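User: Fold this; tokens only.

Assistant: Input:
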Amino acid sequence: MTSWRKRMTYGLAAVAAMVAIPLSAGTASAASWHDVAGGPEMYPNMAACQADIPEAKKHYKDATCVENKGVISLWALY
């Protein structure tokens, strides 16, 4: 019969592998958002930014407009 120490060691190793494999695989394929355009000169209001979303979606996976402290930016998902 196997000792409890060996059972615990094998059990912890199995759990660590089950957690580590999906985490390492997920980060390699994860898409990321990037600020691609913006500023008051380019987008004086949210509607002007949103008008550029269809064109941005032709080049990127997705696009959205974000307002941060009064500055509107176009963000794209690579």
